[in-house]
Amino acid sequence: MTSVLDLAGIFVFATSGALQGVRKRLDVVGMAVLAFFTAVGGGVLRDLFIGIQPAAFRDVGYLLVPVAATAVVFLWHPQVARLMPAILVFDAAGLGLFCAVGTEKALLFGLSAPHAVLLGVCTAVGGGILRDLLSGETPTLLYDRQLYAVPAMLGATLMAVLSRLGVYDFAATLAAALLAFTLRMLAMRYSWRAPLARGVTTPE
Predict the structure, then answer these.
(1) How many Å apart are CA 28 and CA 20, to the nearest integer?
(2) DSSP string spanning the chain?
(3) pLDDT tops 90 at residue 37
(4) Of the residues 60, 120, 165, 194, which has the maximum number of CB atoms within 10 A of its CB?
């Protein structure tokens, strides 16, 4: 089940990357590159920090799913763009899932709880950072206008706490993913923002 959910999250993130390619007027190759790194970039960074071969380079599904997402966006990007409200919901679900799974994997490899939380956040938002850098944008992580990284951090923290309390597997993953998902949805619904330094106006 986790594998299916993982691939579903990858598809949603890849769709986001491919749409960014359309907005940047990239060709299909550029779209595919953005889709791939948006989808699996966070997991690749996590695995490299842990010191293992990235799962994205062992399982062909991690390559085929971004290619499929690119094909869908390439052929029907106007229709896909109109579905953005629904895609943002799935994106929030992917954020929750990836922060929980990333934290759990880091803990399984013996990292301390704070480091595991850091890698959980990296898993959830790393692909978006790579997407923005490759497309010439300032990473949204640096101006977290609608609380994207913060929900991931809190979800990852809950995952680490539950693991230390002996709650493992599906129950812990579901609880952590739901927390991050709920906070992300509330942030979008009510336009919650991370605070700025005193006297600094909100960036456009």
Answers:
(1) 12
(2) -HHHHHHHHHHHHHHHHHHHHHHTT--HHHHHHHHHHHHHHHHHHHHHHHTS--GGGT-THHHHHHHHHHHHHHHHHHHHHHTHHHHHHHHHHHHHHHHHHHHHHHHHTT--HHHHHHHHHHHHHHHHHHHHHHTT---GGGG-TT-SHHHHHHHHHHHHHHHHTT--HHHHHHHHHHHHHHHHHHHHHHT--PPPPTTPPPP-
(3) yes
(4) 120
The terminus-to-terminus CA distance of the chain in angstroms comes to 40
CA distances from 193 to 136, 176, 178 (A): 23, 21, 20
pTM, entire model: 0.88
Tokens of 96: 């929750």
Predicted confidence band of residue 201 (pLDDT cuts 50, 70, 90)? low
DSSP string, 53-69: --GGGT-THHHHHHHHH
From the list 33, 40, 32, the residue with the least C-alpha distance to 13 is 40
Helix 113-134, helix 149-164: angle, nearest 10 = 150
State the pLDDT at residue 193.
Answer: 81
Q: Rounded to an integer, what distance in angstroms lies between the CA atom of residue 191 and that of residue 187?
A: 5
- What are the structure tokens assigned to 54, written together? 């990235």
Contact status, residue 14 vs residue 65, Cβ threshold 8 Å: yes
Closest to 176 (Cα-Cα) out of 77, 106, 87: 106
